[in-house]
Amino acid sequence: METALLSTIAVLLIFAFSSGAKAANHYDYLQFVQQWPITLCYKNSDCIPGARLPLGFFIHGLWPSNFSGPNQPCVGTPFNSNVMLNQHSLMGKLEVSWRSFTRRPNMSFWEHEYNRHGTCSENNLPQTRYFSKAHRLWESYKAHRMFRKSRVMGHRIVPGYPYRYRDLRKAVRQEIGGKNPSLICKHEPANNTWMLHEVIICFNATRYNVIDCVRRSSCSGAANGYIHYPSR
Predict the structure, then answer these.
(1) Is 184 in a helix, a strand, or coil?
(2) Chain segment 29-75, per-residue pLDDT in tens
(3) Which residues of 144-153 are buried (b: 16+ CB within 10 A; e: fewer)?
């Protein structure tokens, strides 16, 4: 009788701890966030002055998120740089897809993003799988490639010109099965211009199917509906 009782208590404790861990890291979907370096570094003192920035969208982060509102602070195993250093192939890929365009080293950028966001997905995507998944998403959903494939008035969407918000949004939607992305802009009050900064594509938490993003775009307030897609 005593042995059976102790066994039952042990099972309940294991269940409690495992349930608590999942609750602490619960999330409904993933936001895959890509940023445009030129807008990121516009009047940004954290960037290196005069640095030549590439014309492409690169990973800002992969953010586990909840439909119900802001996430609680993530609970999980902190970023381990030694694990990353032992993944030479993965590091080489991330040096291309997930770069820091500020003075912060890449490793520090990855650590920041993983500790703030990635640990929330540890139950499904522990560190190595998390970064591998982000890189694979980038390979499949490069925002600059989506824009280039779309045409407005017979012309491709390329950096250096203003575009209507609806045309930029449509260019992404038609490449992700008609689902809604979120576009994030940076506002320049001096001349009331809006610059395209980030493109967010959202995915199911487990199957990684594209779903509608619920985050409201910050570009919708652009004057006359036009957004600058800066080149330099």
Answers:
(1) strand
(2) 999 999 999 999 999 999 999 899 999 999 999 999 998 876 678 88
(3) bebbeebeee
Q: Which residues contact 177 (CB under 8 A, 6 or more apart)?
A: 210
Assign 192 to helix, strand or coil: coil
H or E element: which one contains 130? helix 127-140
* Residues 77, 122 contacting (CB under 8 angstroms): yes
Q: What is the pTM of this model?
A: 0.88
Instruction: Give burial (CB, 10 Å; 0-12/13-18/19+) of 232.
Output: exposed
- Which tens digits make up the pLDDT trace of 182-192? 999 999 888 88
Query: Taking a C-beta distance cutoff of 8 angstroms, is the pair 106, 95 a contact?
Result: yes
